[in-house]
Design goal:
By secondary structure, the chain is an all-alpha fold. The chain has one domain. Helices cover 81% and strands 0% of the residues. It contains five helices and no strands. Helix 2 runs antiparallel to helix 3. The chain is globular and about 45 Å long.
Length: 108
């Protein structure tokens, strides 16, 4: 369920960026693709698909690492504290951990 929620959040953020034009076009398209794929794969993982679970777990783990190393850039760009800039990392870390513990309930 958490992967679906993050996918919907990323998709909504990408739609907002597309409407406002506040980011480069490749970033907007990439966020839209990642958000839609996380949403669809998260739903399939909830239905028991092991392949979908593996892909969405890897995607969320990758996003966690990107957000961890991107936190200083977010801090410098927005002026937020480093703790607030690291919140996306914590969200994706928690989602990845929850997904990783769900492997026993999937079909083989």
């Amino acid at each position: 369920m958490a992967a679906v929620a993050t996918g919907v959040g990323i998709t909504l953020f990408a739609i907002w960026l597309l409407a406002t034009g506040k980011a480069p076009i490749p970033l907007r398209v990439a966020l839209l693709l990642v958000g839609v794929s996380n949403t669809i794969l998260g739903i399939k993982a909830l239905q028991g698909s092991r392949v979908s679970w593996a892909f969405v777990t890897a995607t969320c783990g990758t996003l966690a690492i990107i957000c961890l190393f991107g936190a200083p850039k977010i801090r410098d760009t927005t002026g937020y504290s480093l703790g607030a800039s690291a919140l996306p990392f914590l969200v994706f870390l928690i989602v990845t951990t929850l997904l990783a513990f769900r492997h026993d309930t999937l079909e083989r």
